[in-house]
């Protein structure tokens, strides 16, 4: 592929930063209940395939030089693979998730135990917060989703606990029930997002904050293409989001597609499987 001088110039400005991720193997993954539009209890799940796809994602992070810690899966918690929902760990503060649905309550206990063992003293919010599913760090601010899962009142709690400004963004399409399904953080100043997933007010906020944001098509959004993880240069994304991959390339990023189609049956993909620890 020929790289134009303009694209090459942008590419050289993208820089990778070593990251610290936390993941949980989908040993007990299944779709035993339906709490989002992606989940269908009548659709069979191939656990071996889910584990193999997850292993590819983990290996991708390791190959890129990132640290990956593992939290042991717990029987009876099939959604525990979606580690991003576990909480938010940043600047010495570890906020453990408070889930909306009772089916996921046990995950908070499991991840809080891991946080405590690793020296991250976990704290809780009074209101529902679903971790990095709805709390995405961009530079010195936190973009916070609401509308389906995280209670907007938790946003003020997160701001008080972290000392960081929190920007509330309301989601309106149930297919994009968490912020990380409709918006991807690419570096400290760059995002990609799917405008129809947000209210008019939220779109206006994003346009003001990120005038150069990448806007993805419905085709890519509907395969959860924005459920991606970036280290500032490499963007690991669902392999089916080919249009998004091209947009990333032309913006100077290095897209890496990973097939997580089996885990998509539970309503999650790359980012959902990845909790980032911010030091």
UniProtKB/TrEMBL annotation:
InterPro entries: DDAH-like. Pfam families: DDAH_eukar. Keywords: Hydrolase. Belongs to the DDAH family. NCBIfam families: DiMArgaseDdahMtb. This is N-dimethylarginine dimethylaminohydrolase. It comes from Candidatus Mycolicibacterium alkanivorans.
């Amino acid at each position: 592929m020929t790289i134009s001088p303009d694209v090459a110039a942008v590419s050289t400005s993208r820089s990778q930063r070593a990251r610290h991720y936390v993941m949980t193997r989908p040993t007990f993954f299944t779709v035993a209940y339906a709490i989002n539009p992606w989940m269908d209890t009548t659709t069979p799940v191939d656990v071996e395939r889910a584990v193999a796809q997850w292993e590819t994602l983990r290996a991708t992070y390791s190959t890129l030089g990132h640290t990956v810690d593992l939290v042991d899966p717990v029987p009876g918690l099939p959604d525990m693979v979606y580690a991003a929902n576990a909480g938010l760990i940043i600047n010495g503060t570890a906020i453990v998730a408070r889930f909306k649905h009772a089916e996921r309550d046990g995950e908070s206990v499991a991840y809080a135990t891991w946080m405590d063992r690793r020296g991250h003293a976990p704290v809780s919010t009074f209101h529902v917060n679903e971790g990095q599913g709805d709390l995405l760090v961009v530079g010195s601010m936190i973009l916070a989703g609401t509308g389906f899962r995280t209670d907007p009142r938790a946003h003020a709690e997160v701001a008080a606990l972290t000392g960081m400004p929190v920007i509330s963004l309301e989601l309106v399409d149930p297919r994009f029930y968490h912020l990380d399904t409709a918006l991807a953080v690419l570096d400290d100043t760059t995002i990609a997002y799917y405008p129809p997933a947000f209210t008019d007010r939220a779109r206006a906020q994003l346009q003001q904050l990120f005038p150069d944001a990448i806007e993805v098509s419905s085709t890519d959004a509907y395969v959860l293409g924005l459920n991606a993880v970036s280290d500032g240069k490499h963007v690991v994304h669902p392999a089916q989001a080919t249009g998004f991959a091209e947009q990333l390339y032309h913006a100077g990023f290095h897209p890496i597609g990973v097939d997580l189609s089996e885990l998509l049956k539970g309503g999650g993909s790359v980012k959902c499987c990845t909790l980032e620890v911010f030091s």
